[in-house]
Amino acid sequence: RGLGSSAHRPAEDSWLKSLFVRKVDPRKDAHSNLLAKRETSSLYKLQFHNVKPECLDAYNKLCQEVLPKIHEEKHYPCALVGTWNTWYGEQDQAVHLWRYEGGYPALNEVMSKLRQNKEFTEFRKERGNMLLSRKNQLLLEFSFWNEPVPRDGPNIYELRSYQLRPGTMIEWGNYWARAIRFRQDSNEAVGGFFSQIGQLYMVHHLWAYKDLQTREDIRNAAWHKPGWDELVYYTVPLIQEMESRIMIPLKISPLQ
Q1: Which residues 6+ apart lie within 8 Å of 133 measured at CB?
Q2: Which of 40, 64, 152, 211 is 20 to 30 Å from 27 at the Cα level?
Q3: CATH number of 42-249
Q4: Considering the entire predicted model, what is its pTM?
Q5: Which of 166, 161, 211 is nearest to 46 (CA)?
Q6: For 38-52, how does the pLDDT look when each residue is reduced to its tens digit (9 = 90+)?
Q7: Residue ranges of domains in the chain
Q8: Which residue ranges does the record assign to the NIPSNAP domain (predicted)?
Q9: Which whole number is the average pLDDT over 22-26?
Q10: Interatomic CA distance for residues 134 and 115, integer angstroms
């Protein structure tokens, strides 16, 4: 019985080891360096504010009074890329996208200066009384996506958010570096980002459309382009969760 047990052990050990053997990714650089725009050092902050329903109008009014002052003040190395209310998706929600030109040092400089800004301190206090919850993420932009620049309206915006399976960001980037060319004909591609701090392995694609019917028409047209269906087929298994928000820009938003 002892001989029989020892005779099977090498095979058992080999089988057990196979469960834990993983092929090591030969890349010698961080995913952020491989995927992000090299010509810029911009860092983005995406804010989600869930507002008390009865306070949404007051919240929007307050933001429209204070946020442009930060955006336009040359003393702060940051810019308001866009600010919206969610129309379809999570209700009574505000979404703000900021760019910090100079990366983390710029972010630290802005935050330090704002702590000394009495008007902003009062703004945050008043704003806090209107919120149910809030969260933010720090993002980098994909190298192959359009730079988010101001545009005239009226437009609606769709923020498509993807929670990827850990370890699949490079694969996602490789596929979407090819897929984005299928979605440029109508100038609908605004920006593409991936998270660095906050909820990780998150990807956000931002699109602009004239209206919901235009969105439907543009998305359907992509399926008639050879190769789009194959790229969708290979990217879907990389996703754990996905969410779509249709958003309306506030009057102060550079993205209209």
Answers
A1: 49, 50
A2: 40
A3: 3.30.70.100
A4: 0.86
A5: 161
A6: 656 799 999 999 999
A7: 42-249
A8: 157-254
A9: 49
A10: 19
